[in-house]
């Protein structure tokens, strides 16, 4: 822009024979002549914006007929003034248009729609210039000034808009995190929601999420991807800590309708890896802590059982869930595997054999051992526990014992 302004200033002082200096001088005179028509141009530009871009039609009349028209007038006035004076706009003069771009971010206007106002206004200005009673013989100087002005202001407006949008996303994310924390703690959250301008659902599905293991700094990338996806779902309240998180997904009556599963599918796509999650329904705000506890236990159980990534609910693991509840039955089942305490490779063998659906070839491959080695280990398990993993009755008993054994180990003595 400085080059454009400098060119205009130098040319205007060039030879007075009507060549380069005369063309620029004519452009400056034309710009000065068009300044009185700025209100007309601004009104036409805003009218075209509202006709062509739906986002502007959503703005209140006070913004459309007030701020937006006034801002457009000011930008056009700045352009024509700088062209008429043969100079570039200063940083101080550009501060207001840049700030207005940030305001449109708070209004929810997309960036593309915000930037459209500048070429539309420039086009209308050029149409008026070209249709004037004394059009410039060579419009090069006016066009150069117009393009230089757009090249100066539009990147700065876009930068301010994106910076404001990032701040808004951060604010919304923090509001959601704070509300999630209040609800998960079992405290009333309606006043906080009103303060943040948020509306709480009556019922939520509480989702406890475990991020997939990722090498190096990929975990941070996955977190950013998940947060970015959730930014587009402001009704979902989320809080993350370490390699896990809790989501509160609004539910419409009568119950889970697939919204949670669809959301997790989008999160998997964003993370480029499948997450493991468990969910439980909270019928009201007061039952959210209980639902979180249930979902956390189901998630831990799914991981202990070696279940693949995906979404689990209590109904999916009801038998196993019942087996891990503290009591004499669980303790008796856990003691079945007590003889294997000092032989963890046999515990691992039993776990993989069960996970493989009792198929020897798949279990041996998962354990990276020969099938004969697997057969030997299964024999040792039968000898030490008194139950045969290759027999239907013994297999069911050992599967239940393995579930109870893992739960007892987690809870301690």
Report on this model:
With 413 residues, this protein is α+β, with helices and mostly antiparallel strands. 66% of the residues lie in helices and 7% in strands. The protein has a five-stranded mixed β-sheet. Strand 2 and strand 3 form a beta hairpin. The longest helix is centred in the middle third of the chain and has 45 residues. It is elongated, with a radius of gyration of 34 Å. The chain starts with a helix and ends with a helix.
Instruction: Tell me the β content.
Output: 5-15%
Q: How confident is the prediction overall: mean pLDDT?
A: 80
Compute the number of strand runs.
Answer: 5
Q: Describe the global form.
A: elongated
How does the SSE layout of this entry go?
Elements: H1 2-12, H2 20-34, H3 38-52, H4 54-57, H5 61-84, H6 91-107, H7 111-130, H8 140-184, H9 190-196, E1 204-210, H10 218-231, E2 237-241, E3 244-250, H11 259-271, E4 276-282, H12 288-304, E5 310-313, H13 318-323, H14 328-336, H15 344-355, H16 360-367, H17 371-385, H18 392-411
Parallel strand pairs: 4-5
Antiparallel strand pairs: 1-3, 1-4, 2-3
Short description:
The protein has about 425 residues and is α+β, with helices and mostly antiparallel strands. Helices cover about 65% and strands about 5% of the residues. It is built from 18 helices and 5 strands.
Please give a handful of descriptors for the protein shown.
7% strand, elongated, 413 residues, five-stranded mixed beta sheet
